[in-house]
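Batch manifest, entry 17 of 40.
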Amino acid sequence: MIRSRPDECRAKEHWEIIAGFPGRPWLDTSTPEPVTPLGDELSRITQPVLLVNGEHDVGDFLRVAEELERRLPNAQRIVVPGAGGFPLWEFPAAVNRIVGQFLDRSGF
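Output type: structure tokens
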């Protein structure tokens, strides 16, 4: 979406951030620490949770959000139409409206 609607999605600023990113996390050769699986614990989280994806987000991220929505008892998932992997950057006004509505409904 950022390529087809560059002004609205702030493409120039986005590419400036990417150009300035040195990539150090991907150059780290140390062995990562094992991650403890928490999937079974998710059902115990009762706080309201808002999950946000863009319509054209990375497939793995969409699948993770679907799984979290399924496992979290008080989750709401929204998919921002037309957005890619950075909906909060691409369409901040739409996302702010959605977050505001979520917070109002959740009593925050």
